[in-house]
Batch of 2 targets.
Target 1
Amino acid sequence: MMQTPLTMTQMMKRAELYFPKKQVISRTASGIHRFTYKQIAERTKRLADSLTKLGIEKGDKVGTLAWNHHRHLEAYFAIPCMNAVLHTINIRLSPQHISYIINHAEDKVLLVDPDILPLLEKCGSELKTVKAFIVMTDDNELPETTLSPVYHYEKLLTEANPNYHFPENINENDPAGMCYTSATTGNPKGVIYTHRGIVLHSLALGLADGGGISERDIAMPVVPMFHVNAWGIPFAGVWFGSTLVLPGPYFTPKLLAELIETEKVTITAGVPTIWLGLLKELESGSWDMGSLRAVLCGGSAAPKGMIKTFEQKYNIPFKHAYGMTETSPLALISTLKSYQEELDPEEKLELRSKQGTLVPGLEMKIVGKDGEVAWDGKEMGELCLRGPWIASKYYKDERTLDAFHDGWLHTGDVVSIDEEGFVKIVDRTKDLIKSGGEWISSVDLENALMAHEAVFEAAVVAVPHDQWQERPFACVVLKETFKGKTTKGELLDFLKPQFAKWWIPDDILFLEEIPKTSVGKFLKRTLREQVQKEVHK
Ligand code: AMP
């Protein structure tokens, strides 16, 4: 067979050639904008030309601090296709961490949204390598800023060459993108994505049993474009000619419902917190969600009760998936096998709430205390992955050795696997509750609590215990109408028939909100400290 390079250059080219009329619908601070792929392709060339004029060369890093919108999409293609490296920066990190990653990546140019400028200004004097800032504003004039030199995105594009030629000699193993993942302690760790990895991962997103993204889709990634490339949806969507809906800054559940209804979104993707918010909106308003064929949910465990409400109450198909920054991210997806459709609804729900089976193209092993675990749904071990879209190291970071050895990525996720190969994430290694030498899954308890009608959100953490080393402690946010009514006793009684006695949390703390990480996951470290204080009151 021929050895043609798997590079991203083919993606936008294909959209331009075959789908010039299809649209990118983009929400920015000034409202909704509609562009055709013909226009987006031309703007992408203009951006690449502007970056070349600003001195960007092969291998240079260009950072973005931006929401999901068309200009960010243009950067997604212009930068890798000119053989530079697209560095998407998580705007929810602290200024210290943002400065660290910009310096560590050695970004030469930064593309920034106007509302994120104040955050970047806080890093200003710390930035060692940045030569230029480009503001992606809708206004004709640049906002005032202490940063310098600053360029106006649209003015640069107007002056640029619309016929810029992307280089044709890109090596498929060249870096195309990079993203930093927050570590529990210390600085964030960088992961480099190659052209080859992105192309193969995009194919996996298109598989009928994977994401199933196709030309017919109207895809709305709600997951930020600064979090693992919005799970790769912009790459796959452009390549396949799907319509993209990019929801922009500061969206609310109401706005998402509005976009789904008016733009007839067929597939959308985000973390469970987003979908809990949307459910709340659906419960209070009257929305037409009939166009949705899939809600992709990952990043943390999707509560069973939530999947049930989406599917049974609102008739919206739900797809639970698993991945991490290090895995591009798609690794597991919970799609039922044909013969499992015959199971009764509760059994199906149980399977669908697992993270699912391995996506074709990847390899997996699950290593427990005594070697690889049995496929019995009970034994627990650490999930290890390898494959063409799994990172092989962290970027210039000695912590590489913790996670990457023997040719595998050691994910730090503790899982079990059943007879059918469905993997269930039991916990992060560090979040497991180790009680009397046995393991308790915080995720299982959280899911069970969130299935109670009064519970909006629940997180379970370990508290140190003299006799048992650790015991589970639950933190619960009640739904508005149940506040002051539902008691701890009721919730504990609800759990008792479902778990062994020693799994039942020692206590429950009612909170107004569960603290979350920059990407919307439960911030267990903060929660543990909060609970500690409560226990010692
Ligand atoms: P990140 O790199 O920020 O995307 O975080 C990756 C981590 O999120 C994984 O190692 C898991 O611990 C967790 N995670 C991702 N997807 C799921 C899921 N569907 N269920 C449970 N945990 C998940």
Target 2
Amino acid sequence: MPPNTPPDLNIRPRILYQVAKAAWEGTLFERKGEICHLLQREFADKATRRLVANQIRIAMGLEPNNSEEVINEYDAEALMGMGSEPVVIANPEACENCHSSSCEKACPLGAITRDELGRPSIDRTKCANDGYCISACQFGALADKSQFVPLINLLRQNSHKVYASVAPAFAGQFGSEVTAGKLRSALLKLGFNEMVETALYADLITIKEAFEYDDKVKGEHDFLITSCCCPIWIKLIENKFPDLMGHISPSVSPMIASGRVIKELEPEAKVVFIGPCVAKKSEAQLPELKGAIDFVLTFQELATIFEAAAINPSEEPDEENPLASWGGRIYARTGGVSAAVGTTLEKLIPRRAELFNPIKADGIPDCTKLLEEIRAGKREFNFIEGMACKGGCVGGPGRLLPPEEGTKQVNDYGNAAPAHTPVENPQIYSTLTKLGHYNGMPTMTGTSKMAAILARKLASVPK
Ligand code: SF4
């Protein structure tokens, strides 16, 4: 190993496990110093011991402070709330001694730069907190702040009804035998009051996107950029293609829709999104979207919590409560949003479906290329879908399965859905009825109540 190169720690999974276990057992505050010393024992040099302490603080959702100890009189207060920005954190000391360029190469937005002394730093104006750099960093110097400590506290307190909104990419992630019903039972055992498929809210967004398409694509040069799922896709357009912003559909993501609808019906409830995405931690905190989602966990973090709580989802009873359609469930893979909106348009407004001409891109380089071509007028498509991860959300950095296997599982899960589109999904009408819509399908555009709930910029919801 060259001099001044940080050691290969590969210690983050163990740190997350120890922190989650102590949080689950209710002993984290007393034991955080002990956990720190337990893990630091393996490393003699002070810099690595500080790195371990910082990683423990990040796992607790706190800022690194370059101390060898995990003790701070304000920690208790910080742990009660949602993690603060920025989500992706670099350990400054480790980065100073690192000469690898793997994190720079992994960042598709060019947010990691080097100063005149060769030290890397994150340009926060470009960083979208996507988390790609974390898996590329072999020294464990980069990490995303975890939110599971305050979440475990919330579940232990039993003071609020807590919903888990689970992304459709969950299929197969916790084992091929772990159905939605088994995952639901495991989450209930963990202390959640209910699990819902985020895909049900993707169904609502599909309807809204179909109506938005009908509303905004009138002539041959009109096109709609779907904004549904991916915060990195939106950030890419904001940063590099601001002239295309006016074409973005005004719909929120299914994650935000799930939180808003649940809280519209139960204002005191807490909603936790669980998915493969690190960037969702940031999306949930955007000023215009804040309040819908209380905590965000990745699948990797949830798997660690299950392990710490000795819960094996595959051994839990299968109490499936089918909710979403095929269209909502395939949002998890590239092309899913376009397929869902296209088939829904055929049901809702058949005359407009004939001209529906979608295109999709996945991975930031391909998304960028597609947007450049759209800007240059080289493409004749009128519904533009982009997903930052290769393969779509099944390729998200917090996944547990390879993207190809995730895609297969998602397709199988979609094919097993009781309804093909949201138009045939009785759960949609039941949700709409609870929201006060008793007669058929509301258009969800303009100034309607549903449009306001599902709108990207929510000023106030008309009653
Ligand atoms: Fe997140 Fe990737 Fe899905 Fe975008 S494509 S929402 S970055 S997991």
